[in-house]
């Protein structure tokens, strides 16, 4: 199996069938990540460069581990120690790196559309690891994979995404992914954090978490992105937490088998309390775990390689 398109820039451009292909391929890599010898040679001889212009822990490390488990040579780029601090443009940076004979680029950038811009410059595959508030496709893919693994299906589920929808690339990518695979999606948050016209993406809107919770099969809490909040979108963090934070009291309104998710990092006591984050309904650590398999699948599919029995034995 392989993806016909040469890049992964967002879930908006993918079909439901392409998303399913990635999720099915990820199943092959779950077992690899659970065995004592966690390496396969499918990307041996290829070089992957991780271009991160924004801080990242989970995504960067997850990609690096995924690349190494596929036996790729990995190079990590840090904007703070590169020629970009001297004024070099993204275009020149990318072309210089590509001229060294690299095979794939993974990029995170603060500007929406940066990954698509990069894909128009270089000839090698580009993977979007987050472009500002636009999209974060591999996060959504691992969220979809986690739900499919823990609940056995996606179609027909009620998914409630809670928080700063306006600035969240995770929310956008998940809206595209879950709706394309047949789930009902509701976005919930303060009116100031709900983008106007978001209903056109096929979602419902709620401004009251207590009203949205009882019908939810999956609740995805989003981080309050203080680094992107130049204006005042709510009076205080305490008020936000009271209305839209997930705590033990609100969990009493939820279904007995509800699944609680968070892309991380968590602002504990704001988006959710520790009893919820570490409780029996949380699959947050499963999201991190399955992120490796999903990113391995994306790297493998974009490389155009063939997964043989020798590779996984």
Features:
313 residues, Rossmann fold, 2 domains
What can you see in these coordinates?
The protein has 313 residues and is of the alpha/beta class. Helix content is 37%, strand content 14%. The chain folds into two domains: 16-135 and 288-308, Aspartate/ornithine carbamoyltransferase (Rossmann fold, 3-Layer(aba) Sandwich); 137-286, Aspartate/ornithine carbamoyltransferase (Rossmann fold), CATH 3.40.50. It has a five-stranded parallel β-sheet with strand order 7-6-5-8-9. It has a four-stranded parallel β-sheet with strand order 2-1-3-4. Strand 1 (47-52), helix 2 and strand 2 form a beta-alpha-beta unit. The radius of gyration is 19 Å and the shape is globular. The model has no long low-confidence stretch (mean pLDDT 91).
Task: Summarize the topology.
Elements: H1 16-34, E1 47-52, H2 58-69, E2 73-78, H3 90-98, E3 104-109, H4 114-119, E4 126-131, H5 137-151, E5 158-162, H6 169-180, E6 184-188, E7 204-206, H7 209-212, E8 218-221, H8 237-244, H9 248-251, E9 259-261, H10 274-277, H11 284-303, H12 309-312
Parallel strand pairs: 1-2, 1-3, 3-4, 5-6, 5-8, 6-7, 8-9
Helix pairs in contact: 1-5, 1-11, 2-11, 5-6, 5-11
Give a brief outline of the structure:
The protein is an alpha/beta fold and 313 residues long.
Could you list the spans in which at least 5 consecutive residues all have pLDDT below 50?
A: none
The CATH class label of the largest domain is Alpha Beta
Q: What is the CATH topology classification name of the largest domain?
A: Rossmann fold
End-to-end span in angstroms? 18 Å
């Amino acid at each position: 199996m392989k993806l016909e398109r040469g890049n992964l820039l967002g879930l908006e451009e993918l079909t439901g069938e392409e998303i399913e292909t990635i999720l099915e391929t990820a199943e092959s890599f779950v077992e690899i990540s659970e065995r004592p010898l966690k390496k396969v040679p499918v990307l041996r001889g290829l070089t992957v460069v991780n271009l991160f212009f924004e801080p990242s822990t989970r995504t960067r490390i997850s990609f690096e581990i995924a690349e190494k488990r596929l036996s790729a040579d990995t190079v990590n780029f840090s904007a703070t120690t590169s020629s970009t601090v001297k004024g070099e443009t993204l275009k020149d940076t990318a072309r210089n790196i590509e001229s060294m004979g690299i095979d794939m680029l993974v990029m995170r950038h603060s500007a929406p559309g940066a990954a698509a811009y990069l894909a128009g410059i270089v000839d090698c595959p580009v993977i979007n690891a987050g472009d500002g508030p636009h999209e974060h496709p591999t996060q959504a893919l691992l969220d979809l994979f986690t739900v499919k693994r823990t609940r056995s299906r996606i179609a027909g589920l009620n998914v409630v995404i809670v928080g700063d929808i306006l600035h969240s690339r995770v929310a956008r990518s998940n809206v595209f992914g879950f709706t394309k695979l047949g789930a009902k999606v509701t976005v919930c948050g303060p009116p100031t954090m709900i983008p106007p016209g978001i209903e056109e993406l096929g979602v419902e809107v709620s401004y009251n978490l207590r009203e949205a919770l009882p019908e939810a099969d999956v609740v995805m809490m989003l981080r309050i992105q203080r680094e992107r909040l130049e204006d005042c979108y709510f009076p205080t963090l305490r008020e936000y937490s009271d209305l839209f934070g997930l705590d033990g009291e609100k969990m009493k309104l939820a279904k007995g088998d509800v699944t609680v998710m968070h892309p991380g990092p968590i602002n504990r006591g704001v988006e959710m309390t520790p009893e919820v984050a570490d409780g029996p309904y949380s699959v947050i650590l499963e999201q991190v775990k399955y992120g490796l398999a999903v990113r391995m699948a994306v790297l493998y599919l974009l490389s155009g390689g063939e997964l043989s029995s020798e590779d996984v034995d």
